[in-house]
Amino acid sequence: MLLIRCPYCREDRSEEEFSCVGEAHIDRPESPGDLSDSEWGDYLYMRTNPRGPHRELWVHTAGCRRYFNVLRDTVSYEILAVYTIGAPLPQPPGGNES
Amino acid sequence: MEKYSLFSLVKHGRRHHETWQRAWRDPAPKKSYDTVIVGGGGHGLATAYYLAKVHGVRDVAVIEKGYLGGGNTGRNTTIVRSNYLRDEAAHLYDFALKMWPGLSQDLNFNVMFSPRGVMNLGHTLHDLREIERRVNANRLNGIDGQMLDTAGVEERVPLLNCSPDARYPVLGASWQPSGGVARHDAVAWGYARAADSQGVDLLQQTEVTGIRVRNGSAEGVETSRGFIAARKVACVAAGHSGVLAAMAGLRLPIESRPLQALVSEPLKPCLDTVVMSNAVHCYISQADKGDLVIGAGADMYNGYGQRGSFSTIEHTLQAVCELFPSFSRVRMNRHWGGIVDICPDACPIIGQTPVEGLYFNCGWGTGGFKATPGSGYVFADTLANERPHPLAAPFALERFATGALVDEHGAAGVAH
Amino acid sequence: MHGFAGDTLASALLANGVTTVATSFKYGRPRGVVGHGAEEPNAIVQLGRGGASVPNLRATQVELYDGLDAEACSRSMAQRLVGRLGRFMPAGFYYKTFMGAPQRWTAGIAGPTALWTASEHILRRATGLGHVPAGDDPDTYDRFNRHCDVLVVGAGPAGLAAALEAARSGARILIADEQAEFGGSLLDGSFNIAGQDASNWVADAVAELAACADVDLLPRSTVAGYYDHNFLTILERRTDHLGLVNPNRTRQRLHRVRARQVVLATGAIERPLVFANNDRPGVLLASSVASYLNRYAVAVGHKLLLCTANDHAYRTALDWHRAGRAVAAVVDCRDEPHGGLVDAARDAGIEVIAGHAVVEASGKRHVTGAVIAPLDPGTDSPTTRRLDCDVIACSAGWSPTLHLSSQTGTRPRWNEAAAAFLPGDVGDGAICAGAVAGSDSLRDCLEQGALAGATAASRAGFGSGRTTFTAPEIDETPATPSRPLFLVPHTKPVSRAPKQFVDFQLDVTAADIELAAREGYESVEHVKRYTALGFGTDQGKLGNVNGVAILADALGQDVATTGTTMFRPAYTPVTFGAIAGRDVGEFHDPERHTPMHAWHESNGALWEDVGRWKRPWYYPRPGETMQDAVNRECLAARDAVAVLDASTLGKIDIQGVDAAEFLDRVYTIGFRKLAVGRCRYGLMLREDGTIFDDGVTARLADNRYLMHTTTGNAEAVFAWLERWHQTEWPELDVYLTSVTDQWATTAIVGPKSRAVLGRLCDDIDLSPDAFRFMDVREGHVSGIAARVFRISFSGELSFEVNVSAQHGRQVWDAIVEAGAEFGITPYGTEAMHVLRAEKGFIIVGQDSDTTTTPHDAGMDWAVRRNKPFGFLGDRSLDVSDHRRDDRLQLVGLATTDAATVLPEGGQLVDKPESEPPVPMQGHVTSSYYSARLGRSIALAMVKGGANRLGDTLYCPLTDGRTVSVKIVSPVFYDPDGERQNV
User: Fold this and answer.
1) C424-456, pLDDT tens digit by residue?
2) Are strands C825-826 and C642-645 parallel, antiparallel or unpaired?
3) Shortest alpha-carbon distance between residue A30 and chain C (Å)
4) C227 CA: distance to closest CA in chain A (Å)
5) Annotated domain spans of chain C
6) How does pLDDT run across C87-96, given as a tens digit for each residue?
7) Which residues contact C181 (CB under 8 A, 6 or more apart)?
8) DSSP β-bridge partners for residue C642
9) Which residues pair with B283 in a beta bridge?
């Protein structure tokens, strides 16, 4: 039962208020028409799915309804950082992001 | 391999059970194998068994970082059925289903397959429409699907709340009599023992730490016990598929999520079939020991911790109490989690990767257990012949480029 | 049977001489009470009868109340037979048989699974403990969300000391204990603190805590689960000690606690000795014998033999002796026990036999004596000795109750000195204190507890972390170290000795564990699963450590290498109802009602569940069948006027300079050129090119649009729009507001709709030229400010009147009244579906599924591929699989027999009769009887259907009949769309 700090509300709230959308920073390609089927398929479906620090997109569904990013360890479930959309990427401790 | 039977039990009983042989060897790893299978769960062990038995490929090692069957094989709710909607999935799962009844004899190990029927409840007109579509498709595919009305449901599951006043009343159900449950550990052990007797090396407590790729070809695996060379590397490690893919520089369309389950304390027989409800979100059966075995939905975030959120358990038990009001005073003994591969179309990925000699069998999501025999069979065939088995062909990785997904969310049993 | 206030069911049973409480499943052996708390494996009872009955309670935890009705959870069915064949049923026996004869023997007689299925049937009836209650639960439950600075788990000496220290810092404290009284182990023994009976210290501590405003004491409350980020669940039993049913109070409450800090003072559970026939009634834990004696004034027999590997258990013999009962001997497993307690026993005239252990219990139905033997007999053959007794109290040591600490994923660590698993690293959110941390003296427990309380409070921001606590004087003397002993060797090898039980409930013996190891089940998890060790309702609280150590020995490795299985929540079982809380019945996924709900109800509507909404399905009149009612409703809409509650459609207000650009990106069609006051139909795609949602969007002003979504997708669409705006296009000036609940919508449908609306509205020009199809106007309807759309989901002239939700019912009533003279007829979702199907309008999610593209649905007309940005999902329309000619495409179907209505979900095939597998050509998505057309109509998705008009297909039904159909255009009625322009 994660306790998540919403970077907009600035409060620690229980995970039931939030929804996890999935991996963060999967930017929509600028010109989809220029991509091959395979490149487009990569954007749509392929995920890094790391064991360890993972950047995720969350939304405070039952709160401010703002989307934000969470850097979370997928093994310990520890939340290493939360940051707003467009903010500089915080690095995981040790920097060994896989 | 010593044959197990009532006679062997009596024979050994007279000897105070002092002379039973090992179920499988504990071999030292060889320097190289023809095929290395990464993952000693049901699917991996079945793959090894069929490789050896059907294709004569006996120079095989199964590498398991923990103990055999310790992943999702030993953590799932053991439901076996084949009532999938799309032809491709229905053919694959039904091929597997038809292997279950003969499996105990084939392996000489009682996997306790119990075809007690699987029921998928419909609570809305939309559900009924989807069930009708699926049952009709099943019948045309030779699968024993039936439609039940509310009375038919009530007759088979007397404790189910079939009142029209329920929040989501039971309007009907699909019913697959040949589906059921099996004993999960026995499946892993049965395949392990049978594979071992065919000469397959089972390497437990051996962790794969890298996949060696040179010039686009897999050459073997780095392990906690040293490098093991292989002509083919086959990854069958549900939950950790993405980690293995990354070792070969690949990404997969898979996310690893916690999937939770729970059991009640043991009860006298009260539920003789498997009941699943997609709309109210739970699936439930009763184990031979008497425990109610209940499956929850997958958690919303990625996790390798084999544990999920308590709120998922709460939602599931709300559904259980809603469907079975008399279970309200029953108590939960234990809940736990597995790590499942969540794939965009709720279907597996079986076959070759862009790396020569590197194969994956993964992405089975929340329901891979039922497919164990079929999955192992078609994957062994794919490995041995270096081309997809016809039943596996639609599940190649390429479908995520072409768009030919096999969408089975409706039949997956739980929302994810 | 009589008992006393404060008794448990177990103490009352023992006081009344009931010593056999169960029969073992596998061997049919009598079993007695072993423990006195959560560890009890045998005394499992069903309380009460009927719907209020509770299965599988431990008699040791059931508080006595007047009229208590309990029954042992018997497993009598096959036990005699099974008992005799037990010898041939080692661990895992069922994996080795019941596989059935080879198929060649049984071909045509029975399937290969028949033998197992038949055996399973018998086995199932023999297994299981209690019965499911026979009826609905009469009680209620609730859940309680709470926060605290420090949660103290366990109110024994360490927990109380921790709570006191933390409370003095001013922190907000919760302290929970599973027992009815606080005090933990102090309740069971005869301890002195500061020269007084320990109960005085407990009473003072509880009084001080109770006086603190920010301390909440929770007795009868088991901390069941410890989850990530310091979330814990506590099951509080509020009425179970009063009786079976309590209509005036919630029976149990699940506290959902988010604690800044947790002090785990969960204590330890005594470890039994494993010796031959150690399951005989009369063999108990030493601490349990003491507990029954000291706390409940019950002597569980007459002559006690204590077998111990440590000093603590001597107290049991001393207490027994003080109670005036005979002590046969203290059999001490250690070679040279000495110290205060040992001396006290000797001083009391109790024989202390050192270096020995009980190797076998005598007696069939109950203990009548013990056979003892030296543990290290050297080279001589062991000399055994039999002592008479009717109670064997045993203590091999203590197992810290580390379940909670390991639930978050921390592996326990073996500690050789303590001969026990201790909690692993619990991180900086929790502290273990007292016996759970391996502490084995009362003084240590108190000091550790106090330090833990102070530290936890300080970490939570209270106090300095330094403890003010000075341990009171405690009467303790140095002890002889305990001897690690997990299996008492019998004179015969394990495989041949009488059964040495490790797990009583599941009949797992030392021989079973050795057998598992012999067969290669070497991982502790394999052994657990192969033998069922620890799978009982006690979850191995007694047997786990002995089992692991016996396995380690069999494998020739140490216990640390062997490791332990992981502990999963719950610590002790938790009632399903308590976990569900109030979210059952009417509160299970609460219904959503439109403002007009009560009208529909009083006008006889039957309901369809659409998402969480209750929508009127149809309004049968007396004597009407569903088809009659739907026919009548449809004809009213086609011929006169009908009215539909369309309030459930999702509505999103979209404003901003870039609103048009935003809409252009999320819809396949363009909105830039849409004139103010006009509406346009849009299709929304997922990024994979499949249809996600559809609906009409109106331009209300230059920079303001109102989007309609489907009822079921309203929330998903809103979240989707927010996501793209916030994550990908934050530069767009656009504001999104969900206004679904703010509006009530009444659709007036039919050729007379203009006349009806005209009676209620005088500030909108309703004439066909002034208020055209796909126009939106603002004005007043029945005096209420309204937004009126001239849009149609039926193909008829239609006005959708939107007013603020609070006026919804008033305006609905006014419209119904104004329409009375035209025969205005309310219609529900079923007629709505028929009307739209007659026109070939799709329902997203019914006619389309998650694989349907706009092209598949025949809706290329709604797709603009030349917009500057494109739109979400556009690239996917070009992937190779989406360009196949044989994809499922939307068509109409006409049955050859006009009266036959196809089932929705029916599959279509090319040939009327063939054996499976039959290739399928598509399926029926919508199917109705059309009263207007006097025949059945259907929509279907058919492979390459767009080019197969006129083809004949067949729809095999589940009842064996086959219906032939012809592929036709999906537009059955008014193909030129003239009726909406009347």
Assistant:
1) 999 999 999 999 999 988 999 999 999 999 999
2) parallel
3) 9
4) 6
5) 9-121, 140-268+400-459, 275-395, 629-835, 841-981
6) 777 888 888 8
7) C187, C219
8) C749, C825
9) B276, B295
